[in-house]
Predict the 3D structure of the following.
Amino acid sequence: MIIVMKRGASRASVDAVVAKLESLGSDGHVSHGQFRTVIGAIGDRSIIQQVPWEAFEGVERAVPVLDSFKFVSREFQPDDSVIEVRGVAIGRDDQFVVVAGPCAVESRDQLFRTAEAVKRSGARVLRGDAFKPRTSPYSFQGLGEEALQLLDEARSTFDMPFVAEVLDPRDVELVSSYADILRVGTRNMSNFTLLQEVGRQSKPVQLKRGFTATIQEWLNAAEYIFKEGNHQVIMVERGIRTFENSARNTLDITAVPVLKAMSHLPVMVDPSHSGGKRHLVAPLARAAAAVGADGMMVDVHPEPDEALVDGEQALPPDEFAELMQSVEAVAAAVGRSI
Ligand code: PEP
Ligand code: MN
Protein backbone atom coordinates (compact mmCIF):
# COMPACT_ATOMS: atom_id res chain seq x y z
CA MET A 1 0.00 0.00 0.00
CA ILE A 2 1.21 3.50 -0.82
CA ILE A 3 -0.24 6.40 1.11
CA VAL A 4 -0.03 9.60 -0.91
CA MET A 5 -0.16 12.79 1.18
CA LYS A 6 -1.80 16.00 -0.04
CA ARG A 7 0.42 18.79 -1.32
CA GLY A 8 1.76 20.68 1.68
CA ALA A 9 0.59 18.06 4.20
CA SER A 10 2.04 18.84 7.61
CA ARG A 11 4.86 16.96 9.25
CA ALA A 12 2.48 16.01 12.07
CA SER A 13 0.05 14.36 9.65
CA VAL A 14 2.88 12.32 8.13
CA ASP A 15 4.04 11.31 11.60
CA ALA A 16 0.49 10.28 12.52
CA VAL A 17 0.28 7.91 9.54
CA VAL A 18 3.67 6.39 10.36
CA ALA A 19 2.68 6.00 14.03
CA LYS A 20 -0.51 4.21 13.01
CA LEU A 21 1.43 1.82 10.79
CA GLU A 22 3.89 1.12 13.59
CA SER A 23 1.02 0.42 16.00
CA LEU A 24 -0.09 -2.28 13.55
CA GLY A 25 3.34 -3.88 13.59
CA SER A 26 4.12 -2.46 10.13
CA ASP A 27 6.63 0.07 8.84
CA GLY A 28 6.14 3.38 7.07
CA HIS A 29 8.82 4.32 4.57
CA VAL A 30 8.59 8.08 4.03
CA SER A 31 9.73 9.60 0.77
CA HIS A 32 9.71 13.38 0.35
CA GLY A 33 9.20 14.29 -3.30
CA GLN A 34 9.48 17.70 -4.86
CA PHE A 35 5.73 18.26 -4.57
CA ARG A 36 4.35 15.76 -2.12
CA THR A 37 5.25 13.14 0.40
CA VAL A 38 4.40 9.48 -0.08
CA ILE A 39 4.55 6.74 2.51
CA GLY A 40 5.22 3.14 1.57
CA ALA A 41 3.40 0.86 4.00
CA ILE A 42 5.30 -2.35 4.58
CA GLY A 43 3.77 -5.16 6.54
CA ASP A 44 0.78 -7.46 6.55
CA ARG A 45 -1.33 -6.28 3.62
CA SER A 46 -4.60 -7.68 5.00
CA ILE A 47 -4.26 -5.61 8.19
CA ILE A 48 -3.03 -2.41 6.48
CA GLN A 49 -5.86 -2.46 3.95
CA GLN A 50 -8.51 -2.38 6.68
CA VAL A 51 -7.49 1.08 7.92
CA PRO A 52 -9.57 3.97 6.46
CA TRP A 53 -6.42 5.87 5.46
CA GLU A 54 -8.26 8.50 3.47
CA ALA A 55 -9.95 9.66 6.68
CA PHE A 56 -6.56 10.59 8.16
CA GLU A 57 -5.65 14.25 8.10
CA GLY A 58 -3.44 15.21 5.15
CA VAL A 59 -3.94 11.94 3.26
CA GLU A 60 -4.99 12.32 -0.36
CA ARG A 61 -5.35 8.65 -1.28
CA ALA A 62 -4.18 5.18 -0.43
CA VAL A 63 -3.14 3.09 -3.41
CA PRO A 64 -2.78 -0.67 -3.20
CA VAL A 65 0.41 -1.77 -4.97
CA LEU A 66 -0.26 -4.88 -6.93
CA ASP A 67 3.20 -5.21 -8.40
CA SER A 68 5.91 -7.15 -6.68
CA PHE A 69 8.05 -4.01 -6.62
CA LYS A 70 7.07 -0.91 -4.71
CA PHE A 71 9.86 1.55 -3.84
CA VAL A 72 11.05 1.81 -7.41
CA SER A 73 7.57 2.42 -8.83
CA ARG A 74 6.30 5.73 -10.13
CA GLU A 75 3.25 5.33 -7.87
CA PHE A 76 5.51 5.31 -4.85
CA GLN A 77 7.49 8.34 -5.98
CA PRO A 78 5.87 10.51 -8.65
CA ASP A 79 8.96 12.73 -9.10
CA ASP A 80 12.04 11.60 -11.01
CA SER A 81 14.98 10.41 -8.92
CA VAL A 82 18.11 12.44 -9.53
CA ILE A 83 21.44 10.92 -8.52
CA GLU A 84 24.34 13.26 -7.82
CA VAL A 85 27.87 11.98 -8.22
CA ARG A 86 30.69 14.47 -7.70
CA GLY A 87 28.74 17.30 -9.28
CA VAL A 88 27.21 15.19 -12.09
CA ALA A 89 23.39 14.93 -11.90
CA ILE A 90 21.98 11.74 -13.43
CA GLY A 91 18.22 11.70 -14.02
CA ARG A 92 17.56 15.42 -14.56
CA ASP A 93 15.28 15.91 -17.52
CA ASP A 94 17.50 18.62 -19.00
CA GLN A 95 20.71 16.56 -18.99
CA PHE A 96 22.08 13.70 -21.08
CA VAL A 97 25.02 12.29 -19.12
CA VAL A 98 27.69 10.44 -21.06
CA VAL A 99 29.77 7.72 -19.41
CA ALA A 100 32.71 6.57 -21.54
CA GLY A 101 35.98 4.71 -21.31
CA PRO A 102 37.55 1.36 -21.95
CA CYS A 103 35.56 -1.82 -21.44
CA ALA A 104 38.44 -3.10 -19.26
CA VAL A 105 41.44 -1.33 -17.78
CA GLU A 106 44.43 -2.92 -19.50
CA SER A 107 47.30 -0.61 -18.58
CA ARG A 108 47.97 2.87 -17.25
CA ASP A 109 48.78 4.14 -20.71
CA GLN A 110 45.59 2.71 -22.27
CA LEU A 111 43.40 4.09 -19.46
CA PHE A 112 44.95 7.54 -19.39
CA ARG A 113 44.89 8.00 -23.16
CA THR A 114 41.22 7.02 -23.19
CA ALA A 115 40.27 9.15 -20.19
CA GLU A 116 41.96 12.20 -21.67
CA ALA A 117 40.13 11.72 -24.98
CA VAL A 118 36.65 11.11 -23.56
CA LYS A 119 36.96 14.04 -21.17
CA ARG A 120 37.98 16.32 -24.04
CA SER A 121 34.90 15.25 -26.02
CA GLY A 122 32.49 15.96 -23.18
CA ALA A 123 31.99 12.69 -21.27
CA ARG A 124 31.21 13.38 -17.60
CA VAL A 125 31.87 9.96 -16.06
CA LEU A 126 34.72 7.52 -16.78
CA ARG A 127 34.13 3.80 -17.14
CA GLY A 128 36.78 1.08 -16.85
CA ASP A 129 36.47 -2.37 -15.39
CA ALA A 130 38.75 -4.20 -13.01
CA PHE A 131 36.77 -7.44 -13.06
CA LYS A 132 35.36 -8.74 -16.35
CA PRO A 133 32.66 -11.39 -16.79
CA ARG A 134 34.05 -13.40 -19.71
CA THR A 135 32.34 -16.19 -21.58
CA SER A 136 35.57 -18.20 -21.64
CA PRO A 137 37.50 -18.74 -18.38
CA TYR A 138 40.71 -18.46 -20.43
CA SER A 139 39.98 -14.92 -21.64
CA PHE A 140 41.42 -11.83 -19.92
CA GLN A 141 39.59 -11.43 -16.59
CA GLY A 142 40.68 -7.90 -15.65
CA LEU A 143 43.53 -6.49 -13.55
CA GLY A 144 41.61 -6.50 -10.26
CA GLU A 145 42.69 -4.03 -7.58
CA GLU A 146 45.55 -2.71 -9.71
CA ALA A 147 42.92 -1.43 -12.17
CA LEU A 148 41.01 0.25 -9.36
CA GLN A 149 44.18 2.04 -8.28
CA LEU A 150 44.74 3.27 -11.83
CA LEU A 151 41.14 4.46 -12.04
CA ASP A 152 41.58 6.30 -8.76
CA GLU A 153 44.59 8.09 -10.24
CA ALA A 154 42.69 8.86 -13.47
CA ARG A 155 39.79 10.26 -11.44
CA SER A 156 42.00 12.90 -9.86
CA THR A 157 44.03 13.60 -13.00
CA PHE A 158 40.95 14.18 -15.19
CA ASP A 159 38.48 15.22 -12.48
CA MET A 160 35.93 12.58 -13.47
CA PRO A 161 34.03 10.17 -11.25
CA PHE A 162 34.26 6.56 -12.39
CA VAL A 163 32.06 3.47 -12.56
CA ALA A 164 33.33 -0.11 -12.34
CA GLU A 165 31.61 -3.47 -12.46
CA VAL A 166 31.45 -5.72 -9.44
CA LEU A 167 31.00 -9.41 -10.15
CA ASP A 168 31.24 -11.08 -6.81
CA PRO A 169 29.61 -10.24 -3.46
CA ARG A 170 33.05 -10.78 -1.88
CA ASP A 171 34.47 -7.89 -3.94
CA VAL A 172 31.73 -5.36 -3.22
CA GLU A 173 33.56 -3.67 -0.34
CA LEU A 174 36.76 -3.48 -2.37
CA VAL A 175 35.18 -1.98 -5.48
CA SER A 176 33.04 0.30 -3.36
CA SER A 177 36.11 1.63 -1.56
CA TYR A 178 37.41 2.99 -4.89
CA ALA A 179 34.55 3.52 -7.36
CA ASP A 180 32.03 6.38 -7.38
CA ILE A 181 29.38 4.16 -8.99
CA LEU A 182 29.13 0.38 -8.81
CA ARG A 183 27.84 -1.58 -11.77
CA VAL A 184 25.95 -4.85 -11.79
CA GLY A 185 26.27 -6.37 -15.25
CA THR A 186 23.73 -8.16 -17.38
CA ARG A 187 24.84 -11.62 -16.29
CA ASN A 188 24.37 -10.73 -12.64
CA MET A 189 21.06 -8.91 -12.73
CA SER A 190 19.44 -11.90 -11.03
CA ASN A 191 22.27 -12.54 -8.59
CA PHE A 192 20.18 -11.65 -5.56
CA THR A 193 23.04 -11.97 -3.08
CA LEU A 194 25.07 -9.47 -5.09
CA LEU A 195 22.06 -7.13 -5.37
CA GLN A 196 21.61 -7.22 -1.59
CA GLU A 197 25.28 -6.57 -1.02
CA VAL A 198 25.39 -3.51 -3.31
CA GLY A 199 22.13 -2.46 -1.62
CA ARG A 200 24.05 -2.11 1.64
CA GLN A 201 26.57 0.32 0.14
CA SER A 202 26.27 4.07 0.04
CA LYS A 203 27.43 4.30 -3.59
CA PRO A 204 25.03 4.61 -6.57
CA VAL A 205 24.54 1.43 -8.59
CA GLN A 206 24.15 1.10 -12.34
CA LEU A 207 21.92 -1.91 -12.85
CA LYS A 208 22.12 -3.40 -16.32
CA ARG A 209 19.18 -5.28 -17.68
CA GLY A 210 19.62 -9.04 -17.78
CA PHE A 211 19.80 -10.06 -21.43
CA THR A 212 16.85 -12.42 -20.91
CA ALA A 213 15.00 -10.30 -18.34
CA THR A 214 11.61 -8.69 -18.70
CA ILE A 215 11.20 -5.12 -17.49
CA GLN A 216 9.20 -6.45 -14.56
CA GLU A 217 12.09 -8.72 -13.52
CA TRP A 218 14.55 -5.87 -13.97
CA LEU A 219 12.50 -3.59 -11.71
CA ASN A 220 12.33 -6.33 -9.13
CA ALA A 221 16.12 -6.54 -9.21
CA ALA A 222 16.24 -2.78 -8.52
CA GLU A 223 13.78 -3.32 -5.66
CA TYR A 224 16.27 -5.75 -4.04
CA ILE A 225 18.83 -2.93 -3.93
CA PHE A 226 16.29 -0.40 -2.63
CA LYS A 227 15.01 -2.74 0.03
CA GLU A 228 18.47 -2.88 1.61
CA GLY A 229 18.47 0.92 1.89
CA ASN A 230 20.36 2.02 -1.21
CA HIS A 231 18.02 4.26 -3.22
CA GLN A 232 20.56 5.35 -5.82
CA VAL A 233 19.89 3.00 -8.71
CA ILE A 234 20.45 3.83 -12.38
CA MET A 235 18.85 1.45 -14.88
CA VAL A 236 20.89 0.64 -18.01
CA GLU A 237 19.22 -0.88 -21.07
CA ARG A 238 21.94 -2.85 -22.88
CA GLY A 239 20.03 -5.03 -25.30
CA ILE A 240 18.29 -8.36 -24.92
CA ARG A 241 18.62 -11.70 -26.65
CA THR A 242 15.93 -12.21 -29.26
CA PHE A 243 15.54 -14.44 -32.33
CA GLU A 244 17.33 -11.73 -34.33
CA ASN A 245 21.03 -12.46 -34.62
CA SER A 246 22.32 -9.74 -36.93
CA ALA A 247 23.59 -7.77 -33.94
CA ARG A 248 25.06 -8.99 -30.65
CA ASN A 249 21.80 -8.14 -28.86
CA THR A 250 18.60 -6.30 -29.75
CA LEU A 251 18.48 -2.87 -28.17
CA ASP A 252 15.03 -2.57 -26.62
CA ILE A 253 14.56 1.14 -27.15
CA THR A 254 10.92 0.81 -26.08
CA ALA A 255 12.15 -0.09 -22.61
CA VAL A 256 13.16 3.54 -22.00
CA PRO A 257 9.68 5.15 -22.13
CA VAL A 258 8.15 2.03 -20.56
CA LEU A 259 10.50 2.32 -17.59
CA LYS A 260 9.96 6.06 -17.35
CA ALA A 261 6.23 5.44 -17.00
CA MET A 262 6.59 2.62 -14.48
CA SER A 263 9.44 3.95 -12.39
CA HIS A 264 11.09 7.14 -11.14
CA LEU A 265 14.61 5.80 -11.65
CA PRO A 266 17.07 7.31 -14.14
CA VAL A 267 17.49 5.27 -17.33
CA MET A 268 20.62 5.04 -19.46
CA VAL A 269 21.36 3.14 -22.66
CA ASP A 270 24.51 1.22 -23.59
CA PRO A 271 24.77 1.35 -27.40
CA SER A 272 28.11 -0.51 -27.35
CA HIS A 273 27.15 -3.77 -25.68
CA SER A 274 23.75 -3.86 -27.37
CA GLY A 275 24.87 -3.64 -30.99
CA GLY A 276 28.28 -5.18 -30.37
CA LYS A 277 29.64 -3.57 -33.55
CA ARG A 278 31.34 -0.23 -34.06
CA HIS A 279 29.11 0.95 -36.91
CA LEU A 280 25.99 0.44 -34.78
CA VAL A 281 27.12 2.58 -31.84
CA ALA A 282 26.32 6.02 -33.30
CA PRO A 283 22.80 5.27 -34.61
CA LEU A 284 21.82 3.49 -31.39
CA ALA A 285 23.30 6.31 -29.30
CA ARG A 286 21.28 8.91 -31.20
CA ALA A 287 18.16 6.78 -30.74
CA ALA A 288 18.85 6.73 -26.98
CA ALA A 289 19.02 10.52 -26.83
CA ALA A 290 15.90 10.88 -28.97
CA VAL A 291 13.80 8.45 -26.93
CA GLY A 292 14.37 10.32 -23.67
CA ALA A 293 17.14 8.40 -21.92
CA ASP A 294 19.02 10.22 -19.16
CA GLY A 295 22.36 9.29 -20.63
CA MET A 296 24.46 6.61 -22.28
CA MET A 297 27.56 4.54 -21.68
CA VAL A 298 30.05 3.97 -24.51
CA ASP A 299 33.16 1.77 -24.89
CA VAL A 300 36.18 3.76 -26.14
CA HIS A 301 39.70 2.40 -26.75
CA PRO A 302 42.78 4.19 -28.12
CA GLU A 303 43.53 1.17 -30.34
CA PRO A 304 40.36 -0.92 -30.64
CA ASP A 305 42.03 -3.58 -32.76
CA GLU A 306 44.45 -4.28 -29.92
CA ALA A 307 41.78 -4.35 -27.17
CA LEU A 308 41.79 -7.33 -24.83
CA VAL A 309 37.98 -7.17 -24.49
CA ASP A 310 35.21 -6.06 -26.86
CA GLY A 311 37.44 -4.39 -29.45
CA GLU A 312 34.84 -4.88 -32.20
CA GLN A 313 32.47 -2.41 -30.59
CA ALA A 314 34.95 0.07 -29.09
CA LEU A 315 35.22 3.48 -30.73
CA PRO A 316 38.60 5.09 -31.29
CA PRO A 317 38.83 8.62 -29.81
CA ASP A 318 38.20 10.46 -33.10
CA GLU A 319 35.00 8.49 -33.79
CA PHE A 320 33.88 9.11 -30.22
CA ALA A 321 34.39 12.86 -30.72
CA GLU A 322 32.19 12.76 -33.84
CA LEU A 323 29.57 10.70 -32.06
CA MET A 324 29.40 13.25 -29.25
CA GLN A 325 28.67 16.03 -31.69
CA SER A 326 25.80 14.23 -33.33
CA VAL A 327 24.34 13.01 -30.03
CA GLU A 328 24.57 16.52 -28.63
CA ALA A 329 22.39 17.79 -31.48
CA VAL A 330 19.76 15.10 -30.93
CA ALA A 331 19.79 15.68 -27.15
CA ALA A 332 19.31 19.40 -27.73
CA ALA A 333 16.25 18.67 -29.88
CA VAL A 334 14.61 17.00 -26.86
CA GLY A 335 15.66 19.70 -24.40
CA ARG A 336 18.75 18.11 -22.92
CA SER A 337 22.38 19.16 -22.83
CA ILE A 338 25.44 16.96 -22.50
C1 PEP B 1 30.24 -3.89 -19.70
O1 PEP B 1 29.57 -2.85 -19.64
O2 PEP B 1 31.47 -3.91 -19.77
C2 PEP B 1 29.55 -5.19 -19.73
C3 PEP B 1 30.19 -6.32 -19.45
O3 PEP B 1 28.27 -5.10 -20.11
P1 PEP B 1 27.08 -6.15 -20.01
O4 PEP B 1 27.02 -6.56 -18.57
O5 PEP B 1 25.90 -5.33 -20.45
O6 PEP B 1 27.39 -7.24 -20.96
MN1 MN C 1 32.50 -4.69 -22.72
Remarks:
- The first strand starts at residue 2 and ends at 5.
